[in-house]
Amino acid sequence: MSSPAAVLDLAAIRADFPLLGEKVNGQPLVYLDSGATSQKPQAVLDAEISFLTHANSAVHRGAHTLAAEATELFEDARLTVAGFVGARPEQLVWTSGATAGLNLVAYSIGNASVGRGAPASAGFALRPGDEIVVTETEHHANLIPWQELAARTGAILRHIPVHDDGTLDTDAAAALITERTRVVAFTHVSNVLGIVNPVVELVALARAVGALTVLDACQSAPHLPLDLPALGVDLAVFSGHKMLGPYGIGGLYGRSEVLEALPPFLTGGSMITTVTLDEAQYLPPPQRFEAGTQPVSQAIALAAAVRYLDGVGMDAVHAHEKALEARMGAGLRSIPGIRLLGDAATGAATGNGAATGSPERVGLWAFDVDGVHAHDVGQFLDARGVAVRVGHHCAQPLHRRFGLTASVRASSAIYNTDADVDTFLDALSGVRSFFGAGS
Question: What 3-state class would DSSP assign to 414?
Answer without folding.
Answer: coil
